Amino acid sequence: MLLDLSARRPGDRFIPARKAGGWDVSVVVSVVIPTYRRDQLLARCLSAVAAQDLPPECYEIIVSDNAASSETERLVQRWVRPEGPSVRYIPASDSPGPAAARNQGWRAARGTIIAFTDDDCIPTPSWLRMGLAGFKDGIAGVWGQIIVPIPEGDPTDYELDAAKLEGAEFVNANCFYQRDILEAVGGFDEQFETAWREDSDLFFRLIDSGSRLSRVSEAVVVHPPRQARWGISLLQQRKSMFNALLYKKHPRLYRERIQSNPPWRYYLSVGSLANGVAGLAFGVPVLVVAGLCLWAAVTVHFCAMRLARTSHST
Prior knowledge:
By secondary structure, the protein is of the alpha/beta class. It has twelve helices and ten strands. α9 (240-249) packs across α10 (251-257) and α11 (264-281) runs antiparallel to α12 (285-307). The longest helix is centred in the C-terminal third of the chain and has 23 residues, at 285-307.
């Protein structure tokens, strides 16, 4: 079949090479959704993906489940409908993390284009059509617009954190790749065991490979922040270990695309703790007190800056 991807009007359509004769229509794009025990959110996401304004025979939905949960499998099976797109469930509990789940998903896919979103996202009805329209002139991958609706007034610290996705590049909540380019670079690096920086790592590897990448703002995904208790963004700082892994792998691109200078507070925090430990080891009480006091001051300053003017509601 042929794809009319040059225009982006509501009347754009897929044009079958032959409408009769019993020819099968090929799956053009495979949507991969990793999940882990969030069935209510997943059901909302599946409802949006199943309602895309493409002919249902032209795309498939693959749910890759890190929990290998029987409840999630039953949920996914309820979306297998004669009038809808193909829907498949893949248990992906062998390796932890969404990077591994995405790898298992795209490797099982039939489409020549792989689209990724997350189970807590709501793709708009034209998401797939607009994303596919970006694949022209040798483009290997595209990313779309993410909208993070946060309430008026004082948002929570988690909502403020999530809102940063709107300005990020190649976030897994809304991106598309040629399948062959994923195969060429080996997909996602499963060293990134949580949902943090695995998308940036793939993005950087594609840049290093010379692949042509593009943004398609018309491909829109809504990413409502989940409810979370006040201060949760402080606990998420443990993800910084994956910042370090990303920097180790791509120091130049990390400085250019994410952060030009390392955050002084991390060095100061680690240095002050090291100072306190050294004082304890060598029996120098003043070093212990100075190190712990400096570490406490840096930590309190960071927490105050992080939580300033945020709502305590959940």
